[in-house]
Amino acid sequence: MLSVALVALSFVAAFIAYPYMPARMASHWGMDGEVDGYMARDAGTFFVPVLTAAIAALMHVLPSFDPKKGNYIHFQKEYDELVVVLVAFMDYVYLLSLAFNLGYSFNLLQFMAPAFGVLFLYAGAILAKAKQNWFVGIKTPWTLSSEKVWDRTHALGSKLFMAAGAVAFLGVLVPRMFVASVVIVVAAAAATFVYSYAEYQKEMKAKKGKAGLAGKGAKGKQRPQGRGKQQANR
Q1: 167-175 long-range contacts, CB within 8 A, separation 24+
Q2: Which of 149, 116, 118, 117 is closest to 132 using CA atoms?
Q3: According to the model, what pLDDT value does residue 151 have?
Q4: Under a CB-based contact definition with an 8 Å cutoff, are residues 138 and 157 in contact?
């Protein structure tokens, strides 16, 4: 499996790079591209490979625990590709961090931009395909309560993540655009949460309206029967 090979690649890179890493490694960068976190060499070198392996393993087993696992058949191909894309993303970011700690000078945000662009674009693509489940997608009380709300919310979320991906790619030329893409993703999360609630309320209102009409229709049908019985009694 490609994801397993990519995880193995990160460990190979870790063992090769370990002797050349500084005792105190840069491990986290702020939105301004400046280092704001450090780790000891052992943790800094092997933390990401171990984390990547754990994420890949978790994503491979999660569907088997999903109460709605039968729905994965509708987007299994996209789900498997998502695992590969996520592991490749982790590997790419890890290699950038190794290069930085080896002393190479570059604008980290500028190099991160295309990776986030691919990740956001693929997230948008899988949102358009994903069917109701408990682990992948926009999971709110309302999307999990209604398949129609799930589908409508994911159609919107797909467009927003695609837009974020396109903006992220612009970060290759203008690093600040990468930050803008992250803002779009955060806004997309908030927007889809509110949208799913509004769509659910709309659906419930429509159902109540239909139930009310059905009730009135049933009462209307009963009245002639009652009159017929009265006439028969006379």
Answers
A1: 168/113, 168/114, 168/116, 168/117, 168/120, 169/113, 169/114, 169/117, 170/113, 171/109, 171/110, 171/112, 171/113, 171/114, 171/116, 171/117, 172/110, 172/113, 172/114, 175/33, 175/107, 175/109, 175/110, 175/113
A2: 149
A3: 96
A4: yes
Q: What is the pLDDT of residues 174-228, one digit of tens each?
A: 877 778 888 889 999 999 999 999 999 999 998 887 776 666 666 666 655 555 4
pLDDT tens-digit series, residues 18-61:
999 999 999 888 777 788 889 999 999 999 999 999 999 999 99
As a whole number of angstroms, the distance between CA 224 and CA 151 comes to: 43
From CA 88, how far away is CA 2, in angstroms rounded? 9
Which amino acid makes up residue 104? Y
Judge if pTM exceeds 0.90. no
Q: What is the Cα–Cα distance from 131 to 125, expressed in whole angstroms? A: 13
Tokens of 98: 């190794």
Distances (CA, A) of 137 to 52, 87, 132, 148: 20, 18, 8, 14
